[in-house]
TrEMBL record:
Family classification: Belongs to the HPPK family.
Single GO molecular function: kinase activity
Pathway: Cofactor biosynthesis; tetrahydrofolate biosynthesis; 2-amino-4-hydroxy-6-hydroxymethyl-7,8-dihydropteridine diphosphate from 7,8-dihydroneopterin triphosphate: step 4/4
Annotated Pfam families: HPPK
Name of this chain's protein: 2-amino-4-hydroxy-6-hydroxymethyldihydropteridine pyrophosphokinase
Keywords, alphabetical: ATP-binding, Folate biosynthesis, Kinase, Nucleotide-binding, Transferase
Gene Ontology biological process: folic acid biosynthetic process; tetrahydrofolate biosynthetic process
The organism's place on the tree of life at top rank: Bacteria
Gene, per the UniProt record: folK
Function noted in UniProt: Catalyzes the transfer of pyrophosphate from adenosine triphosphate (ATP) to 6-hydroxymethyl-7,8-dihydropterin, an enzymatic step in folate biosynthesis pathway.
Domain 7,8-dihydro-6-hydroxymethylpterin-pyrophosphokinase: 86-97
Gene source species: Flexistipes sinusarabici
EC number(s) from the headed UniProt entry: 2.7.6.3
Length: 164
């Protein structure tokens, strides 16, 4: 059995509904163990895009990381993720943050997700559901990764997501 952490985000209405729908789709192949609260953050590009709602979930699964990547892309497609340009607004974005502490660097998959240590919208929800998490490469705790960032004011916890 593999333990996985996924980061989900949406900045197209209904944001919370999109997150719940994605969890429902993911639960067909994943055993959802826990889901963080919803965090509101600004777009990374700081352009005129709407704010994002973000969560991190912990799950277990028998599928391998490449099957999980394909499955996440299928969920995104099913939910009509259609961004007109890279980093554009999206109704759902699903990233594999960690897969069983495995390290993979390939053309299609990079694990753990290479950008998550610099993203409070991943670190705070991850810290909420797995406070003892440490990066499998540099062994830095999720709390320390969060404390190394200086944009703490740009993310706010909104509350719990109804997902069951």
């Amino acid at each position: 059995m593999n333990t996985v952490f996924l980061g989900l985000g949406s900045n197209i209405y209904p944001k919370a509904g999109n997150l719940s729908s994605a969890i429902a789709g993911l639960s067909s192949l994943l055993n959802i163990i826990s889901v963080s609260g919803v965090y509101k953050s600004r777009s990374l590009l700081l352009d005129a895009q709407p704010d994002y709602f973000n969560i991190v979930l912990k799950a277990s699964t028998f599928i391998d990381p490449y099957q999980l990547l394909s499955f996440c892309k299928t969920i995104e497609k099913t939910m009509h993720r259609d961004t007109p340009y890279k980093w554009g607004p999206r109704n759902i974005d699903i990233d594999i943050v960690d897969f069983n502490k495995r390290v993979i660097e390939s053309k299609t998959l990079f694990l753990p997700h290479k950008e998550f240590p610099g993203r409070n919208f991943v670190l705070l929800p991850l810290m909420e559901i797995e406070p003892e998490y440490a990066h499998p490469v540099n062994h830095i705790s999720v709390e320390k990764m969060h404390n190394l960032l200086d944009n703490h004011s740009e993310i706010h916890r909104l509350g719990e997501l109804k997902w069951r």
